[in-house]
Amino acid sequence: MKKYMSFSVGCLIMLMSAGNIFAQTGFTGPAGGYNIIPGQAVMVGHPITISEARNLPHDSWVVITGNIINMLPGGRQYTFRDTTGEIAADIGPKEWRGLSVGASDKVEIHGEVKSHRGLIHIKVHAIRKIEA
User: Fold this and answer.
1) What is the three-class DSSP state of 50?
2) Is the pLDDT of residue 98 over 70?
3) CA-angle at 10, arms to 6 and 16, nearest 5°
4) Is pLDDT of 53 > 70?
5) Predicted TM-score of the model (pTM)
6) Phi, psi at 16, each rounded to 5°
7) DSSP assignment, residue 72?
8) How many Cβ atoms are within 10 Å of 111's Cβ, its own excluded?
9) Nearest-CA neighbor of 82 among 123, 122, 125?
10) Which phi and psi (to 5°) does residue 22 adopt?
């Protein structure tokens, strides 16, 4: 029992000191913007355009609004369009959550920018219909 108690206290002290390291970092950029460190993924909490998303590093989290205009072969890939262009969006059945949208319906997707062999797509984690 004494061994486990000292181990727990040791872990707690280690986590508290690690917390101090992380407490010294954080958002230092301007309000509403994001800083991009080359090669490092970012998380963008406000809607951006497809052209902006294409310039973000692999694994960056984004919010994009636009329209799903068609389904690509394979059943999970869709073409997503906004005023700046088109990008492939990977949307699994779990992410749809029973939602039904047409090509004229505006949607907001939350997902990750994925880059593989020069091809860029969005791995969608959440989708919602934007009511007009």
Assistant:
1) helix
2) yes
3) 145
4) yes
5) 0.69
6) -65, -40
7) P
8) 23
9) 122
10) -70, -30
